[in-house]
């Protein structure tokens, strides 16, 4: 009652008590004192309240007493609980000791019981052995007695036992007759021949009945009955016949479709599911079924399909052989999923080999023979379509026969001389633009070879595969590279006209283009189809060497043909220049009436060169384009250089020559070869020597583009000037010409401005020219009035020529020419 009173009257004490009893909140002395002072009247914690220390002290003393009472009470309770805990611990320990004692007693009893059980079991086993030792002879005696009884019936010739007369007991009868048959085998024939024959007859009858019963059960689909009969027949000699009957009946109605391979796969899957439920050795039965299918059904089917075309149609024969062998191996892969014994891979391989061995032995000979005849037919059909009779040209192929020097023919000597000197020996052949190369023919040859490689991979023995693949590759080289590409190259070489031919048609670049395309296809097949077959054999190096030789020998002929074609191009340019270029072009009789920008020969040569450059770009690829264009550009430059040195040049003729070279240089830019452009830049600079004033020749020769040239070259161009032989009169003539040209320029300009609306600045410049008469002002006015890119008419071109001459005569050689 006192405790309850304290809790009701003093909340702080109750809170403290709750802390000690429950431990729900941590006890903080400062907070506890603050709360106690706040709740005590006169504690001074509340605002407006007087502080009463006595009362607060009294409240503290009371709380301290309460806490002491609470502490004593809790301490007594703790001691009581400790005593109770100690007491229970002693009781628990005592109980555990008692349990341990009882457990030990139970374990001892268990050991005794186990020993007793082991003893009894030993006695029982011993007793069982004794009983079995007594019972086994007894059972054997009983069984022997029964067998003797049945044997006596056979001796008497009358079978009275129910086991032989009751058809439902055929299983027991089969067991008895099987044992009697084994016993009869041991009896002497002279005394027991009759009974042995009777037992054998009964044995055979029961065996036939069991097989008949098995057959009937199989037709009815009674798997359980089939399993029982098969188990009985397992000890009979006719068990294998039972398996044969099962296999035969399984195939009845199984091969009704045209696809014998698919029917065989379905049949084996169906039998695989039930054979384990019938026979004790299912893997043997299934293997025997597969062997029967291969040796009977498949072999007869393969023979029918192949023998029909073996001698009459090699193409169809090879296709059928490849197809049948592929489908057979695919069937074998499906059968590998079944349990056929330990070495099923070898078992199936032997079955396949037994079917195809007679066809695979000479496969490669048939393949090579067909490939040879087929390739020859494709080529001949192509040449017939072109009405072309194939002729022997040069070596006629890539393979060069080794002969002794004494036996070399005239044709061989000519061919070797032609190859080393690049001279067109013998008459030229007019191909009428025909390259005698056909992508259709090439695709057909590559397709035939591709199929041959596929058949070779499938049908060849692994040890013979690289050798057979090499033989097929040799056929491809012979007909594609030698008989087709090489023949086209030889024909193309023979069809290239001589360099002095007029209006010659050049078709060899078309041959180069098509040969390049064809050889890319050839190289792709080499990598895609041949390399996988020979990659790990010594034949790899042999094939690579053969391919390398082919490439090198073709490149020799291609280089030879391209070189001769370039010579013909240069020859055509020479004919154009010879026919179109006149001596009066560069030394006109009336230099005041020159109305052309560049000569007609220059126009035609540039047009011809641009066509040939475009043709070369379309005919070749890669770095070959730049190589050939550089060679053509160098020869083109040499031709123009030598051509320019054949003429003498007046002032106006020199300007026309510069204009021609400028056009040649513009044409040379189409080559996109730095060396060619540099050569024509230098030639253009050399042509400036034809028009520059004699006093400025030394300055021009020391310029950037001409400083590194041989002095003989510079001198040879200076010698081409008309005024070269005039000596000291050259300057006077030059001054006179300059005055005449200046007057002509003013006259033409006056005529032009009457028809042209000029700006005020241009008119003011013209007045200055008219009154001052300076040629340089005329030039600068003209250059400002007609900037680059303006379409200049003939009159303006006359201005341009006159202005250029005046400018160069005055020492400003770079302003106009550039």
UniProtKB/TrEMBL annotation:
Coiled coil: 64-102
Keywords: Coiled coil, Exocytosis, Transport
GO biological process: epithelial cell apoptotic process; establishment of planar polarity; exocytosis; Golgi to plasma membrane transport; homeostasis of number of cells within a tissue; non-motile cilium assembly; protein localization to plasma membrane
GO terms assigned for molecular function: small GTPase binding
Domain of life: Eukaryota
GO CC annotation: exocyst
Domain Exocyst complex component Sec10 N-terminal: 53-161
The keyword Cell inner membrane appears for this protein: no
InterPro entries in UniProt: Sec10-like, Sec10_HB, Sec10_N
Domain Exocyst complex component Sec10-like alpha-helical bundle: 172-726
Keyword match Coiled coil: yes
Pfam families registered for this protein in UniProt: Sec10_HB (PF07393), Sec10_N (PF20667)
Similarity comment: Belongs to the SEC10 family.
Name assigned to this protein: Exocyst complex component 5
Organism field: Taeniopygia guttata (Zebra finch)
Gene assigned in the entry: EXOC5
